[in-house]
Amino acid sequence: HAAQATTAGAAVSVGGVDTSLAAAQATAAKLRATCDSLKGPPKSSADDPEGFVGSFFRSSRLHFIGTWKARIEALMAQQQQQQPAPPAAVGRKIGVLGQQQQQGRGADNRTIVHLDMDCFFAAVAVVGRPEFVGKPLAVCHSNNEKGSAEVSSANYEARAFGIRAGRSMSEAKSRYPDLLVVPYEFDKYEEISEQVYRILLRHTPVIQPLSCDEAYMDLTGVTSDPQAVVAQIRADIQQTTGCTASAGIGPNMLLARLATKRAKPNGQALIRADEARQVLGDLEVSELPGVGWRLKSKLAGMGITHVRQVWSMSKEVLMRKLGAQIGLSLWHHSHGIDGRPVEPPKARRSVGAGVTWGVRFSSDEDAQRFLKVCTGVFLTRYSGLLGLDGAT
User: Fold this and answer.
1) Region of 13 on the Ramachandran plot (φ > 0 left; ψ -120 to 50 alpha; else beta)
2) How does pLDDT run across 315-329, given as a tens digit for each residue?
3) Whole-angstrom distance between the N-terminal and C-terminal Cα of the chain?
4) For the stretch 89-127, what's the b/e string if a residue is b when 16 or more beta carbons lie within 10 angstroms of its beta carbon?
5) 131 touches 99 (CB < 8 A)
6) Considering the entire predicted model, what is its pTM?
7) What is the edge-to-edge ordering of all strands in the sheet holding 3-5?
8) CA distances from 385 to 58, 70, 350, 373 (A)
9) Per residue in 255-264, pLDDT tens?
10) Nearest Cα to 112, choosing from 254, 7, 14?
11) Could you tell me the CA-to-CA distances from 203 to 218, 284, 350 in Å, in that order?
12) Which residues are catalytic, by number?
């Protein structure tokens, strides 16, 4: 049969079969087959206490996030010892929300960057696997087309079909039956995340990590051309990791984060203080910092659903109806004023080890064996916190 190639996704059709898709599906199937957490038992502590605890921590997303945070904190602490924060940054940390915001827009004469990796878990899955490029892909612990497992991350090709994080796999497969599904790859996330943070730390030690793929940076006084610096950071990230990042620049954390939304995917944007009202007016109030479902509901009862509706109320009215701190904060944020400082993580003061599912005991001895294994995990983490080599 004649072979026909197209430029879209480098698809190759042989006898009506997309061989590039078949190759990609084969790679995805191999990843699932070799993933420890998908191999089956032990499924609970009753089957094998020691083996279960080990597999739980290897396959737990929450465990990855917790241990990642500790590693980044250690990396940043080491960097700060070598490169202390500039005096301007230290001074900014003193001004808490109320102190800075009472000064009005003059407090927002800063250069804040919000950087967010693009669909991080899904993007990492593509690194080193050219057969995945250009194809809808999702990260999930299950490929069952009738299952209720939730998608953790989806690339932009998948999002074009309405497949997003939080959707069930059954719905995702109904939207695009040929969806590539790969398991978590925590070792790769850890490696690439650390590479990203090392790049950020080259430019400033004033970094506030939000997750393994998202952070704020304060570049105030570091450069007169933040656009060029951010462009270089994004280029370095892509060259080093093979993944793209989007970034927003603004005079405060609120506007920087909104700028990132404009920038996605794989771009950068700047929002100035005098553009705040234009940007904020049509947003729902839930997009403002500190507005959760409860406050959103209370504001709806006051006839406020969008930011521009907040503008018709004075500080005093909002403070009286919502409380002094919440009312003042809402008024400031609705006007684009945000005095929150970018705060590097503080020294960790606690450590623990917990298992949140699969715990089954039929006797006191089972409980004792399980606790012994968990204690071993705790001691390993505690020794790491203290900088010791051993586990006891």
Assistant:
1) beta
2) 999 999 999 999 999
3) 66
4) beebeebebeebbeeeeebbebbbbbbbbbbbbbbbbbe
5) no
6) 0.81
7) 3-5, 12-14, 17-18
8) 20, 8, 9, 19
9) 999 999 999 9
10) 254
11) 10, 34, 30
12) 214
